[in-house]
Inverse folding.
């Protein structure tokens, strides 16, 4: 199993709206591409008190790296652009790809 993880720090002033948008719009759009078999949405606990935002991890599971590469090449740019336009200057994010170890 391959994990495509997106870590996002979102400004506190849009956090609640962003969580709703992620759950109702963005994550379903990513899942509708057909490249992932499941997902999880986590909030980082123990943030630094002076932090400017909350940190979340959105995890998408895929059976193969080829499917993730296809997603990243053909679908991710448009979906990322929607996120950037909607929350411009209100977030920072980074992505990691991990392989399950047996």
């Amino acid at each position: 199993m391959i994990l495509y993880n997106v870590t996002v720090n979102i400004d506190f002033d849009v956090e609640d709206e962003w969580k709703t948008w992620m759950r109702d719009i963005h994550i379903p759009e990513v899942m509708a591409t057909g490249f992932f078999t499941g997902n999880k949405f986590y909030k980082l606990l123990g943030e630094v008190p002076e932090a400017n935002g909350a940190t979340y991890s959105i995890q998408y599971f895929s059976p193969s790296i080829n499917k993730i590469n296809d997603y990243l090449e053909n679908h991710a740019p448009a979906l990322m652009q929607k996120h950037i336009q909607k929350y411009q200057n209100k977030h920072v994010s980074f992505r990691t790809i991990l392989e399950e170890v047996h």
